[in-house]
Protein 1
Amino acid sequence: MCGIVGYVGPQQAAPVLVEGLTRLEYRGYDSAGIAVLNPRSTAHPSRVVRAKGRVRDLEAALPARLAGTIGIGHTRWATHGEPSEANAHPHTSFDGRVHVVHNGIIDNFATLRSRLAVDGVELTSDTDTEVVAHLVARELAGQDGAGLGFEDAVRAAVAQIDGTYALAVLDTANPDRIVVARNGSPLLLGVGDGEMFVASDASAIVRHTSQVVLLDDGDFASVTPDGFRTFTADEEHTARSAVTIDLTVEELELGGHAHFMHKEIHEQPESVERMLTGRLDDRFGTAKLGGLNLDPRELRRFTRVKILGCGSAYYVGQLGASMIEDLARIPADAEPASEFRYRNPIIEPSTLYVVVSQSGETADTLFAVREVQRKGGTVVGLVNAVGSSIAREVDGGVYLHAGPEVAVASTKALTHMSIGFALLALALGRVRDLSHADGKRIIAGLRAVPGQIAQILAGEEELALAAKELAPAPSLFFIGRVRGYPVAREGAQKFKEITYRHAEAYPTSELKHGPLALISPELPTVAVIPDDDLVERNVTAAQEIRARGGAVVAITHPGVELGDAATRRIEVPRNEVELDPILLTIPTQLLGYHAAVALGEDVDRPRNLAKSVTVE
Ligand code: F6R
């Protein structure tokens, strides 16, 4: 949801900003822009270049020479105002003195806009952000020329806005510094040698430094080439120190793959292996999850588990709930985090709340964490992004260690979430009635997962053929039952978000209660048919579809008798029944991917979406 970047130091700022924006493009790609200060030029002390579309469109719009060693940049996911050059950031104040980039939403922007308009300020965009530039400029100018200093002006402007923001501000009269502010949207500083960076996340600056300062909500910082000063609304100096991040440039490159999504799908065998390292306790048949900050006695006291996540993370949460019910025999369910706090949820001290998020920055999920904590509940996180807002705010958690995920459509992080739930279910089960033998059975199953994923990926050609057959259909069903239903939901989600085809997930058992009416030769179905207690019923349902002329792609296990119930059979190796859904999901990743490739869609950057949804 918008990416911001800033640079101050000895280098030319524009190339550093553009490279940073390219890395942040997954956060939004409706428009891009940069502002660069050049105090040596009296004609152009600041230059702003903006373009609708991608960072590459911005690059094409850049003049051959854009001198200046300090600047800010932005890549936009539109919230207020259509994608256009006028609405692209940076926004500039009425007097040309201030430039601002922003990630977040200013809730009271309409009131502020009207007030500014009454005062004669001409607004040139439809965005909520523009008001910030004008407010800062007004504070700098003051009345009768007695304005505030730059840092105080930003502080005074921010005091007037309600909402969420990561802001980076330039003042042409203070060309040695960037002033930033954070509330509810991610922001960090990168510490270099005689140079400093500002970014929404570390991927933007990893080429330059691995030392970052993670800002907290309420933080401001004044950033100069030699360092930074952090402060808040009430304090002039706060202590914030740098941490070293574990991220390499190679992890952010395509590495020979055509798309990041393809790369990330293929990384899974290795990344899952890495995630499991040190977390399986053979002796006691359990999982080692020290980060939960809950000892066995505390773990035992929970009588219910509530899982909260958004989108695909919510679907994995449904799978996690069934793992917890199966292995720990604790009632568990999943709910979209985006709905949770709006129904004034009852928070029970005996419920363990589990949030799940790749980015760790999803606003809806973060707000759910706060809702639970405000009401005295215990909330732990399954989070991928180390040091992210959710990871920092939860009471404990399990890092997913999937590594960076660049493609907007999530794949490997979701697999890691499922593994995270299996580990949590195992730990919860082993402090209850799950036997040592069953614990060891699950551990053996988990150990087999990386190799089995590799086996599924080896069948990619067959999956690509199936995907090509599915791609032309304007609409399709994904069906599954019980543990297979979250697999179907995620399969449909992946398919629709990157192919733009209508893909609807349904519990197989519910088809005959209505949607069967839609089945025709034009509407194919992807059916999840594992070799479990329901296999015969699932095969019968597939036959009912075939009888009405619908094609069926069955994702199934070796040995399952499908007869003529499927037009295509995709096999995944069998694991333990509780873990099977992890493997059944893998083919759906490749079905979505290859269908999108066949349709010529932009796989890594689907329209209207952004990777990290930091607005409500
Ligand atoms: C789908 C997808 C989204 C995310 C959702 C939550 O491919 O990626 O549905 O799962 O926006 O994001 P995180 O996991 O970052 O909280």
Note: The radius of gyration is 26 Å.
Protein 2
Amino acid sequence: MKKDFISIHDLTTYEFHEIMDLTKRMKKNPSKFRKVLRDKILAMIFQKPSLRTRMTFEVGMLQLGGEAVYLAPSDIQMGSREGVRDIGKNMERWVDGIMIRTFGHNIILELAESTKVPVINALTDLFHPCQALADFFTLVEKKGSSAGLKLAYVGDGNNVCHSLMLAAARAGTKMAIATPPGYEPKPEVVEWAKEDGKETGFELKITNDPVEAVDGADAVYTDVWASMGQEAEKEARGKIFLPYQVNMELFSKAKPEAYFMHCLPAHRGEEVTDEVIDSANSIVYDQAENRLHVQKVIMMLLMGKK
Ligand code: CP
Ligand code: NVA
């Protein structure tokens, strides 16, 4: 693997499947991996809030024999108190890896370029790759494989949507995305997905019609309508995205056994109704659990003995 884990586009199809296989092994037999990161330290830089990401990276490091240091947005004030490059150059003297959750994707690229230690993307405005790996691992656990499945994504063509698309390309999944006009995934990410999925059986349909996307799907995925950093747009988006709410009427267009998926946190009553997220078809807490398992594998691969 490359030094850093910044996007699923950076993984080969082989590496993507290797991560899935290793996660299965590690989840089944965690005690075998209890010391693989002994004496290693991960710095966790958060410029946005988090429950799952913070918990799973910190717990993951502890379970692998290492430790994690949490840096809240106010601690280092990246970009205002000190530039990204200087932070990277300091960090490499103390820690074995850096996890960062930030805004502009250029920030993580600059950090990775400026530091010798591995950098892991824990969400930028463009991507959320650890989330997509956990989601595809969850599908593999439930269905045996994610190849050939129809995954519908309804809502904003955002960071989560982008990473799911790139994972679907590697996995050979048929993805259908429905967004309001003007909120489609970015064309350059669509191009990367098409390139990465050329030989895997990947199919991609992008539409503005949620029913068309959900029709016959094996899983229906949604995310918040206003992501972190878009709080000022929340009200306007609330009106624009209303026809894209995953409620029972829309969800019933998918296969009867279809899964409901969400990266969480969910804004219940907005992008998803209680009835859907609390239904027997919902696997949102399995997705959250699997963040831990896939990230342990990523950290082992990047920070462990080569
Ligand atoms: N899904 C996810 O990344 O959750 P947090 O924002 O709570 O970390
Ligand atoms: N799209 C959301 C995902 C949160 C895990 C955000 O960026 O806020």
Note: The pocket of phosphoric acid mono(formamide)ester (ligand 1) is lined by residues 50-53, 123, 131, 263-265 (CB under 6 Å).
Protein 3
Amino acid sequence: MQTQILGYPRIGANRELKKACENYWAGKIELQALLQTSRTITKQNWALQQAAGIDLIPCNDFSFYDQVLDFTLSVGAIPARFNTVALNKKNTELDLYFAMARGFQKDNLDITAMEMTKWFDTNYHYIVPEFVKNQEFKYFSNSIVNEFIAAKKEGFNPKTVLIGPITYLLLGKEKEEGFDRIDLIQNLLPVYFEIIQDLINHGANTIQFDEPFLALDLDEKSKTAYREVYKKIRKEFPQLTIQVATYFDGLKDNTALAINLPIDILHLDLVRDENQLDEILNQFPSQLKLSLGLVDGRNIWKNDFQKSLSTIEKVVNKIGEKRVIISTSCSLLHSPCDLDLETNEKNLPTTIKDWFAFAKQKLEEVAFLKNYFSNPNDEKLIQQYEANQFSINNRKNSQLIHQTQVKERVNAIKDEDYNRANSFEQRKIVQQNVLNLPPFPTTTIGSFPQTQEVRSWRAKYKKGELSAEEYDVLLKQETKRTIEWQEEIGIDVLVHGEYERNDMVEYFGEKIAGFVFSKNGWVQSYGTRCVKPPIIFGDVYRPVPMTVYWSKYAQSITEQKVKGMLTGPVTILQWSFVRDDQPRSTTCKQIALAIRDEVSDLEKAGIKIIQIDEPAIREGLPLRKDEWQNYLKWAVDSFKLASSNVDDSTQIHTHMCYSEFNDIIQNIADLDADVITIECSRSQMELLNAFSDFNYPNDIGPGVYDIHSPRVPSKEEMVDLIEKAAKVIPADQLWVNPDCGLKTRHWEETEKALIEMVAATKELRKIYTPKAI
Ligand code: GLN
Ligand code: ZN
């Protein structure tokens, strides 16, 4: 029996890589210092794994920015717009690489970065390969081999992780018409061969090809490509140990395809789909080794040794110990680094900490499973096993987790609790009477610039350098200024600015019971951006109001309507580490009830408009299509549960940071929010078509100001955008607002852009007289 992991976090336990990269970009450190940081991190990671007892240690899991981009550079798929950067001798390979990742604005050049998108259903983002019709590939960067050589020098003999050829092509985007990227395999495979040969020449004998697409829905063409490609690799390298790693779902209908590939090791994600095992074992070919992804690479819970060991036993009985590898479910890239760094009892109580395992602890779990299986009588191992079972049972039965009242409340939810009392049509009339808004009402999405100053107050307050009263006074001043400024420039529905919030999920997580926060549990989101997701460990409820204080204050200083601002249950769930001892849908409904309580309290406090942000609904969609409806049902229900317990006259808004709604438009309509604001300006309103084709009945605010850029759009541009929108959506359904919150913008451009936005709206009110008014 052997052990392995599929990859290890490369950010460094104290985010050393982030800091080094950012310093390098800022010109504060030299290239050598950056390279030294990377060498230190990789060396530490290998040593850690070896010490823990991992047999197949990965290399090439390191990356300065993103592993897909690394591979793009390795195979020379450099988009033509970067040629000038590539050809300029002054630029190093790493300069070119960072230019592709981040864009290049130097030497009189202005080259846009490559696009970034979510890595399957994780919160990690990769750089999307760009392919053209006759895309050529060449062995361009030898960073893969260099990392292998470095590992060898340090005395390791690692397996090299490569993105599998089919997955690499499927991850990419066709930048012109008239070809299918899968067909590029003819040009790509020879470069794989060169890389593999180079690795073999330097002493490599094992390669892990990551092929997560094998666990997704595949068309026939891709299936055929899988068969042919691995046949060719096998033929070219008969001696090579070829592993294919699948993760993030079960093989399901691709089972026969995957297990019949001419490879040596097949890895399964048994956390995501434990039920796939029996069927696979029944037809498992005799030459193949099976890697069991038992330790969750995407969550922070301790492995249940009893459960894992019984799976191992079942597999060993069927195919024999020698053909079994114990592994994490996927790369540990998605886990925080080291639980040992969490020493703050106040943050993370010892009892709860004892239920967790971060990346370093997961290495030990993998190694333990193998050791204990082989030495069940070893005293020390027995003790570890017992300690593990103690933690598992302690968590199962803990008073901290189980709140009878919360469980009873979820069980008692009735159908009518999901619905508003009356239809949107009826509500719209009542709301118009109460709110008395002009046509094309203007509003913003919630946050206003979080200046350095605002953030420094929070930091000082947390350190105890500002008292609660002092902090409160400063926030109130800032809020007041923002309210007055919105009044002055003529915005119709005001927001308080969200100055009291650090992050739209963390703010609520800190106030809702059932959440804890780590101090150092960073996970890479993209490039040098890391996030520290809240951890939902127990039943969720809201002990006290969370936002009423600020909304009430803001409303008290103006005659105009101030919008209450909440984060929705699906988004809170989606951006946290979620408990694994009950269905996600149950946890989501618990959060929804907490938000429902907040909505009621806001309403009682006189807030007439309440926005519940759900930017993460779409990203929660399961990878397999046949699971979509089940997810959408509970996601939509959760939003409705949170939002429906209000009078007809209370207007519910929601906000989403994207606008690809074609395939979920029915579900978006089912949310029955009175107003939805969406991202729209980049696509020039094209994305509104989903709403018009569907005859979307409720009100819509398509964003007219792209807040992701410091650029100030002109009044004319915005008039143009709204007119485009008014061509497809009846004018009396339209609101005017930016794409998203203004938190990351500076005041300077925000002021200018919003003044232009209001001016654009005034123009429009002259042209259009919506029928309802
Ligand atoms: N209300 C939030 C804000 O304005 C919404 C942020 C988001 O959609 N991601 O910042
Ligand atoms: Zn947004």
Note: The longest strand covers residues 289-295.
Protein 4
Amino acid sequence: MKSVASLPRPIAEYQTLSAEELFARTAAAKRALGDQVMVLGHNYQRDEVIEHADVRGDSLLLAKQAAERADRPYVVFCGVHFMAETADILSRSNQTVILPDLAAGCSMADMAAIEQVDQCWESLGRLLPVENTVLPVVYVNSAAVLKAFCGEHGGITCTSSNARAVMEWAWARREKILFFPDEHLGRNTANAMGVPRERMIVWDPYLPNGGNTRDAIHRATLILWKGHCSVHQMFRPAHVDYFRRQYPDGIVIVHPECHEDVVNKADLVGSTEFIIRTVRSAPPGTTWAVGTELNLVNRLKREQADKRVLFLSSTVCQCATMFRIDAPHLCWAMENLAEGHVVNRIVVPEDEKAWAKVALDRMMEIS
Ligand code: 13P
Ligand code: SF4
């Protein structure tokens, strides 16, 4: 990385460049940075971005990379804000994490605010000895401050690939789990573990006691936050039925953020990495309907040309926030870095970082 006194280049300079120029300039900046930089790419990223990634994967795999690759001073995270925050928490203090577009958020993560979670905890505390009875489990698709809340209250984080192991860990310690912000990942995982329906309640942060009676709260072993992914909630059971009528021998594979009515009709459910691995290792000639983000499915379709890979729905579209990371933003971040300017650095405040790391480390130990 060169050290120069000039100002950072503005993003506007990049928005009129051709795809070829952007590719060549990003690749050149990456070559110039060499071992100084590691580019991480989530499986939902666009092709024009993911082709520059040193490592691609699901949330867990990328978090592990951030924790393990202390040799790279700069991590350019092509994903969404909560993933870059996780990388900042797990990486060393001398590493710098960059998110090429700060507007790349996650609508699910925005469905639980710390004030609402604090209020929920207080409400539960009026009914139960909450610190001994309820263990908070937060999906990594959440702000760092919520991970910190979990760390501080004996809780833990989870991803779509370890939710079951994390919930087993939690129930071995306390009678109840408060699972947030994704109702569906929590419910689908509990369904697979055989938790009876009457033991699960939904906590609506906009209602007193989450919209539950005292009795229901006392009976519950799983308190599910009323939150969801705006992309995965669009898959419907009718999409599965339609596919099965067209391809009776076809296999349906979906992400656990889908509604239980879709998951229960699917053949397989798992994280983005599980979906990719499963379809890749399937025999040629097999037919698949995939219920997750469109960029991933389209890439899988192209890579696995000896199989028929279909998108489960014709109406669901890309994750709009993952889509914010595009070739101009990546090129802008990489060229500035190569010229000595860090743009869009993600820094989790130290007080949040310490407790959030406790919750993430607990998860890493069992993953
Ligand atoms: P994975 O951890 O399965 O990649 O999921 C992340 C995500 O945001 C899914 O919507
Ligand atoms: Fe968030 Fe859903 Fe996008 Fe995943 S697909 S980043 S959960 S909005």
Note: The chain has a mean pLDDT of 96.
